[in-house]
Amino acid sequence: MRTIIFARRIAGVLILMAAFIAVPSGAQENQLRILSPATGTVVRPGQTITISVAADASVEKLALIGQHPLGVGRIISGGAPGIVARGQGESRPIQFSLLIPADTQPGIYRVTAMGRVSGDDIESEATTIDVEKSEEPRSIRTEPAIIHFEHIGDQIPVRVLGAFADGSHEELTKSSKTTFTSADPRVATVTAGGVVTAVGPGKTSIQARTPSSDYSIPVRVQ
Q1: Of 209, 211, 182, 207, nearest to 197 (Cα)?
Q2: Range 139-221 classified under CATH 3.30.390.50
Q3: Which of 33, 103, 113, 168 has its CA 20 to 30 A from that of 85?
Q4: What does residue 13 show for φ and ψ, rounded to 5 degrees?
């Protein structure tokens, strides 16, 4: 369940600090829209990106919120310096800069514009950005490395860890480049996010793959 956490600063200035609420209505979308970048844009850890938001003049307080750990955007054009702006209409979008922390794990992250209109809180339709390292791992491994189920229906999440040429290690489970497949779905299945489920007795394997590496996880179901 998605929630909105509100923290107030000076004289009712609203700083929207985290997470998300229900899908916005069509009326809200007309009042508040993210114009760019396009959904699925690939960015790098440590990069600062520009996000353009169109807000109706009725939007009294406008902020840009990235899914943790991305944080809050800062205004670079179309409004006073800071993190909260007032809507200026479709033809005068506000531009925010959003820093992708250097330690952000690869994966898909949501970014949403949020605002206040006549005392009510609204949000835009979210856009997503795909945070990925520029280089591929030299090798990958998984945790766990072997899976043994004792009961049909049991589940276990698999983590994929990559080793890179510079000596660093990174979790790649949520990377859009990481895929999972089951050699025999009659024994065990696996979701796109790496959750393995015991389906029937026997032995099989789960393959975790990136563009440069792969790893086979033996699976046994009693």
Answers
A1: 182
A2: no
A3: 103
A4: -70, 125
Provide the residue-wise pLDDT of the chain in tens; the chain has 222 residues.
Answer: 333 333 333 233 333 333 333 444 444 557 899 999 999 999 999 999 999 999 999 999 999 999 999 999 999 999 899 999 999 988 999 999 999 999 999 999 999 999 999 889 999 999 999 999 999 999 999 999 999 999 999 999 999 999 999 999 999 999 999 999 999 999 999 999 999 999 999 999 999 999 999 999 999 999
- Count the residues in the chain: 222
C-beta separation of 64 from 119 below 8 A = no
- What one-letter code names the amino acid at 220? R
CB of 141 closer than 8 Å to CB of 171: no
Domain 5-131 listed as CATH 2.60.40.10: yes
